[in-house]
């Protein structure tokens, strides 16, 4: 087994809240996958407990195997970066979307275990700054429709147990509601630090306030503002076909405000891996590589990062400004070396 080659025994952190629970089943899977590590499986009892365990174990330099959803992984990332720690991470995705595991090529647990036979790879991490908080992400940050749908679904899951089993249906109703009542679109100003110069025709029909070789300032209405580090978002849909976690940049995907059926066509195209068909002048869909972006609005908005809605220190989920950039620190991940990341 690859595990025997490691000098320090790994620790497995299992978040029981992800994947709809099924703790006994997930525990049995882990024990079957790693029979020599059954004594090193730790079930966390809260986000604070997960954070603390990640810090304590990372200080010993032992690899961490994370069993949970994208949100679980984000807690561990923040634990490492906040404390200037780094230790190899293996992500055992058991959440509802697992977009990060999909990008790493280890969505299947067997593929995740097989990745241990190779050296981990240093990957880029994104950074989010709000008025009173800083957090990090690996996958993406979004405002607009995606955050609205996430908030709607989470509210219904708290009220109705069946909502967890039918998340896609509940999510579709959220999209319908958003367009019926104009609940999700955002009128925002974006001040963007570019990775390379943009041609003006790429920004056709976008309300541009300033454009030079290094910066872009725009102010417009959007249905979706997506700042992505990986290719996948919203349950395996490819919104960022050029996404890479080793290129030291992020991609800004903007979808201008439009009609309901246009959005459905875009979602279907992303689901089929054909978002490139919309990345043409005049379609109202834009892909802009960037290093840093500051977003501000007059009306407060929700922020979703790797499947979780952000909150400020007072518990409010609504913000009027944020800054997204590439973090200075990289983190080591096991991944499938046969795919491009």
Tally of domains: 2
Instruction: Determine and state the CATH class of the largest domain.
Output: Mainly Beta
What letter string, H or E per element, gives the SSE order?
Answer: EHEHEHEHHEEEEHHHEEEEEEHEEEEE
Determine Rg (CA atoms, Å): 20 Å
Assembly context of the chains: single chain
* Number of helices, counting only DSSP H or I runs of 4 residues or more: 9
Please summarize the sheet with the most strands: 11 strands, antiparallel
Q: How is the CATH topology of the largest domain named?
A: Tumour Suppressor Smad4
Give a structural overview:
The chain is an alpha+beta fold. It folds into two domains: 2-124, Rossmann fold, CATH 3.40.50.10330; 137-326, Tumour Suppressor Smad4 (Sandwich), CATH 2.60.200. 27% of the residues lie in helices and 30% in strands. It has nine helices and 19 strands. The protein has helices spanning 23-33, 47-58, 70-82, 99-104, 109-114, 145-159, 162-165, 167-180, 260-271; strands spanning 11-14, 41-43, 64-68, 89-93, 121-123, 126-129, 134-137, 140-144, 186-194, 208-211, 215-228, 232-233, 237-238, 250-256, 285-301, 304-305, 308-309, 319-326, 331-333. Strands 6, 7, 8, 9, 10, 11, 14, 15, 16, 17 and 18 form an eleven-stranded antiparallel sheet that branches. The protein has a four-stranded parallel sheet with strand order 2-1-3-4, with helices on both faces. Helix 2 crosses helix 3 (70-82). The longest helix is centred in the middle third of the chain and has 15 residues, at 145-159. The protein is globular and about 60 Å long. The two termini are 25 Å apart. Mean pLDDT is 92; it is low at 1-5.
């Amino acid at each position: 087994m690859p595990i025997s080659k490691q000098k320090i025994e790994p620790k497995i952190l299992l978040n029981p809240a992800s994947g709809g629970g099924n703790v006994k089943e997930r525990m049995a899977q882990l024990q079957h996958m790693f029979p020599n590590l059954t004594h090193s499986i730790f079930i966390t009892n809260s986000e604070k407990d997960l954070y603390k365990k990640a810090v304590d174990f990372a200080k010993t330099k032992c690899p961490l195997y994370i069993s949970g959803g994208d949100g679980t992984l984000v807690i561990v990332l923040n634990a490492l970066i906040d404390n200037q720690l780094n230790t190899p991470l293996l992500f055992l995705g058991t959440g509802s979307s697992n977009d990060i595991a999909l990008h790493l090529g280890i969505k299947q647990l067997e593929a995740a275990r097989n990745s241990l036979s190779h050296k981990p790879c240093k990957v880029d991490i994104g950074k989010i700054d709000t008025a009173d908080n800083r957090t990090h992400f690996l996958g993406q940050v979004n405002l607009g429709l995606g955050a609205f749908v996430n908030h709607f679904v989470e509210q219904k899951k708290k009220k109705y147990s069946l909502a967890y089993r039918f998340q896609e249906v509940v999510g579709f109703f959220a999209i319908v509601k958003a367009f019926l009542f104009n609940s999700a679109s955002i009128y925002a100003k974006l001040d963007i630090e570019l990775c390379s110069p943009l041609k003006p025709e790429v920004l056709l029909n976008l309300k541009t306030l300033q454009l030079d070789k290094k910066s872009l300032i725009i102010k417009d209405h959007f249905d979706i503002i997506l700042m992505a580090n990986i290719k996948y978002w919203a349950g395996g849909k490819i919104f960022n076909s050029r996404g890479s976690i080793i290129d030291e940049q992020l991609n800004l995907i903007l979808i201008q405000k439009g009609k309901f059926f246009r959005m459905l066509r875009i979602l279907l195209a992303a689901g089929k891996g054909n978002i490139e068909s919309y990345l043409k002048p005049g379609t109202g869909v834009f892909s802009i590589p960037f290093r840093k972006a500051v977003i501000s609005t007059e009306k407060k908005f929700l922020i979703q990062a790797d499947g979780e809605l952000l909150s400020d220190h007072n518990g409010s989920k609504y913000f009027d400004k944020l800054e997204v950039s590439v973090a200075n620190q990289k983190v080591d991940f096991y991944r499938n070396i046969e795919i491009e990341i």
